Amino acid sequence: MPWVKKWGRSTKRFAEQVNRLTAITTNQETGWFLDLDDEAVYRIDREMLEEKFNQRLVPPPAAINISVDEVSYKKYHRYLTNVVDVDEKAIIWNERGRKTEILDRYYEGIGKAACERIESVALDGARTFIASTNKYAVNAMIVYDRFHIAQKLNWAVDMTRKQELRKARKEGNDELIDLINCRQRFILLKNKSNLTEKQTDYLQKLCEINEPIYKAMLLKESFLKVYDYQTPEEAQGYLEGWIKDALSSAVETFRTIALSFRDKLQYIINWFRKKISSAISEGINNKIKRLKRMAYGYKDVEYFRLKIHQHCGLLNPRRYPQ
User: Fold this and answer.
1) Tell me, which fold does domain 65-144+277-312 have in CATH?
2) What is the pTM of this model?
3) Each residue of 44-57: pLDDT tens digit?
4) What is the DSSP letter of 198?
């Protein structure tokens, strides 16, 4: 019978209806609406997703411009590596782990010819992703994403704050403790242009009484000025000067950042040649975290991977309406 699978417990049309509902709400709500228990919804939905996955994502789809990033799916540093088609704004591949050999699987899956057609790869500066991309996507321009660079600069400022907070507590400096405690950290991480008048006064007072944080703030703001330049040559000259200043500073966290940026200078400059961003990956990561929260976590990681494709990728019913 064409309307039911062999040994199937539900018709194809009913299974498709379950799959469409789980794409817009939780399995629990789908079960309530259709008067099914959670196990039945899970079984029907997983079977449908596996079938569609094999039809549309095996072998993995190739893309011209991609973004690579990881997202945590479980505590204790359990990660999924996601490959996003920047033009389609959808996940086209994911796998557990974030080592070099994990991303190798994607490149091997699409084949040598497809790898050579890749024009640009946006990533977060991870050496594992860079090594894999250099090995397979030989014609691709690797772009160190601007968003992740800003993240690293904010991390350096926050680490400086924590170091100075520990010193202030040892010395009993209550005035400094009040200025740099955890409740005030978000002010240090905001862009200068977005600060209110009160927050600007707070930063000015802090800079007057603590030199390391003042230097950290200056280094962060001065780095971001590189994005005001229009040509790669101008940007490279400015960055080389900034790296020298950061290495000669007494702020240890920025010395560490400067060494990392010096090794990946060419990838930072590539942003001025092709302004591709992995911001789409960060937006998808937020959707993935929301999906995980809605389900209160997933015990079956393979099912979670399929759900990511359903909500953020090519298995979304809205892309292939029935």
Assistant:
1) Nucleotidyltransferase; domain 5 (3.30.420)
2) 0.85
3) 999 999 999 999 99
4) H
